[in-house]
């Protein structure tokens, strides 16, 4: 073939193909990032979460723009958001905005996502958004096409057949149900006392961490100093032995 007989032509064609593929990959990545940020979904943060989710049924996507799986779900989620918004706009009789579809950018809210336990992206949660999200449940189905998510929204979320303070039977965990029932009977003063008690435990845990961290640092410094001393002592002995060996070689050479 002509190309086989012209290696420089073959190299040029391969180089051209490389740059074409590279340009395509870069444009695709840019399109994915642009699309990810083009969603009309409301973005939640630790600061605005309570205000935006109070007394609402929520459907939340916890994701990160750098995650390939998050990028794959982005257009599906955008379509779902648009469908829900359009449906709510058409529902003239129901002026009460009791449903919220939103998302969290875990690249911006990393610590909060970790504290909430959402570190595999994307994670979808749903349920009663109140009380800091303790009633949220994970969407565990592997089916995440638009039709699947929209049907889930229609069948499950609009009917509110999920775990809420008023529907503890749907919470599944009997121990959790009992604990919520017990807490619900407490007075505001008692609940405030429990919150203060838990905050105190957090502060104590932080102090203990600092104490142990300081202790580890002190032990490290001690071991490091001992190590440096031992190495210096060995080097001193090595230098002495090397000098003696050198003198011995000189004497041997002079007698030869």
TrEMBL record:
PROSITE patterns membership: THIOREDOXIN_2 (PS51352)
Coiled-coil annotated spans: 188-226
Keywords: Coiled coil, Signal
Molecular function per GO: protein disulfide isomerase activity
Thioredoxin domain span: 15-159
Cross-referenced Pfam families: Thioredoxin
Keyword Coiled coil part of the UniProt annotation: yes
Keyword Iron-sulfur: no
Signal peptide annotation: 1-25
Superkingdom of origin: Eukaryota
GO biological process: protein folding
GO cellular component terms given for this protein: endoplasmic reticulum
InterPro entries in the record: PDI, Thioredoxin-like_sf, Thioredoxin_domain
PANTHER family membership: PROTEIN DISULFIDE-ISOMERASE C17H9.14C-RELATED (PTHR45672), THIOREDOXIN DOMAIN-CONTAINING PROTEIN 5 (PTHR45672:SF3)
Assigned protein family: Belongs to the protein disulfide isomerase family.
The protein, known as: Thioredoxin domain-containing protein
Organism: Pseudo-nitzschia australis
């Amino acid at each position: 073939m002509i190309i086989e007989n012209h290696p420089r032509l073959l190299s040029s064609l391969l180089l051209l193909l490389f740059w074409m593929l590279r340009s395509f990959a870069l444009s695709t990545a840019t399109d994915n990032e642009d699309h990810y940020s083009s969603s009309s979904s409301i973005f939640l943060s630790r600061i605005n979460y309570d205000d935006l989710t109070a007394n609402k049924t929520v459907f939340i996507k916890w994701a990160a723009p750098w995650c390939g799986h998050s990028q794959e779900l982005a257009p599906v989620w955008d379509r779902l958001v648009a469908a829900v918004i359009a449906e709510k706009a058409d529902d003239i009789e129901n002026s009460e905005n009791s449903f919220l579809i939103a998302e969290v950018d875990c690249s911006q809210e990393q610590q909060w996502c970790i504290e909430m336990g959402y570190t595999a992206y994307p994670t979808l949660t749903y349920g009663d958004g109140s009380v800091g999200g303790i009633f949220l449940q994970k969407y565990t189905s592997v089916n995440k096409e638009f039709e699947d998510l929209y049907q889930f929204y229609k069948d499950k979320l609009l009917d509110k057949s999920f775990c809420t303070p008023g529907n503890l039977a749907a919470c599944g965990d009997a121990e959790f149900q009992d604990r919520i029932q017990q807490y619900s009977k407490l007075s505001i003063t008692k609940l405030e006392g429990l919150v203060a008690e838990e905050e105190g435990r957090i502060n104590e845990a932080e102090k203990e961490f600092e104490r142990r961290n300081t202790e580890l640092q002190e032990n490290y410094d001690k071991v490091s100093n001992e190590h440096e001393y031992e190495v210096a002592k060995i080097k001193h002995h090595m230098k002495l032995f090397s000098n003696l060996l050198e003198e011995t070689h000189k004497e041997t050479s002079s007698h030869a």
